[in-house]
Design brief:
The protein is of the alpha/beta class and 252 residues long. The protein is built from seven helices and seven strands, in the order ββααααβααβββαβ. The strands form two sheets. It has a five-stranded mixed β-sheet with strand order 4-3-5-6-7, covered by helices on one side.
Length: 252
């Protein structure tokens, strides 16, 4: 309690209630570049001959003076060539596209698909958006950290795995989802996680897609619609519209 010139004011404690039991996850990325031993402008970067040919072909799809439209493809080619996008590669992209370096910095810091740090031979990404969270993404993330021996946002000791927490991967109907580089592993459980990581460690390629036996995103209890063959062309159309001949019989 304290007193001011006019009245006595009593402090009332404020009650704050947490509505979520999930742990707080903060971004480990910095928008501002910091030079390091493995990421600084003095380390040269050059496109391979095949990648340079590929990039030049993409640039030719755009009018003269609009080369910056190929920045997305250029950054993807860099990342597929060396696995990430260092600052020297950004400078090379700016040189090839004849644009200011700042335009490349803006792209690299805005899109989370651009990896500005080395993320291991296999970049394992665990989706934690609402559908995956409701299906146990916290448990999946814990299993991934145990199987790869590294925490989210870091690299394993052998630099083979890099684990990242990501937002919606566009496969909500198959939650929870685990993504390794470009391969989606859907409907995963803890056993699936360990099998996938162990297969990668042994040099194999685990089959991607739903791990529950589903073909795609159909109901897990089986199809409820579109169970038969579709009607043939002309089915249900009035006789006066187009071909008046009777429709072909439907398949059984």
């Amino acid at each position: 309690m304290f007193v001011n010139r006019f009245k006595v004011v009593q402090k009332i404690p404020q009650i704050v209630r947490n509505f979520s039991c999930s742990k707080n996850l903060l971004s480990e990325e910095l928008f501002v570049h910091r030079d390091s031993n493995d990421n600084n402008p003095q380390i040269p970067f050059e496109f391979t001959e095949a990648n340079m040919t590929r990039l030049c072909a993409i640039i030719q799809n755009y009018p003269q003076g609009c080369q910056r439209s190929a920045i997305s493809a250029a950054m993807d080619i860099v990342q597929r060539q060396i696995g990430w996008i260092p600052i020297s590669a950004m400078h090379k992209v700016a040189e090839v596209l004849s644009i200011p370096r700042m335009r490349v910095y803006e792209w690299a810091t805005f899109y989370t698909m651009c990896k500005r740090r080395y993320r291991g031979k296999f970049n394992v990404k665990v989706c934690v958006t609402t559908p995956c969270m409701l299906r146990g993404s916290d448990v999946i993330l814990q299993a991934v950290e145990e199987a790869t021996c590294c925490c989210a946002g870091s690299l394993s000791a052998d630099r083979m795995f890099g684990v990242d927490v990501v937002q919606c991967q566009g496969a909500c109907a198959n939650a929870p989802v685990l993504v390794v580089d470009d391969d989606y592993y859907e409907d995963v459980n803890v056993c699936d996680v360990h099998n996938i990581i162990q297969t990668l460690k042994s040099g194999g390629i685990p089959p991607c897609g739903p791990q529950s036996g589903r073909f795609a995103a159909e109901p897990i209890t089986g199809l409820t619609t579109l169970c038969g063959c579709p009607p043939s062309p002309g089915f249900g159309i009035q006789a006066g519209l187009g071909d008046a001949s009777p429709p072909l019989p439907r398949c059984s």
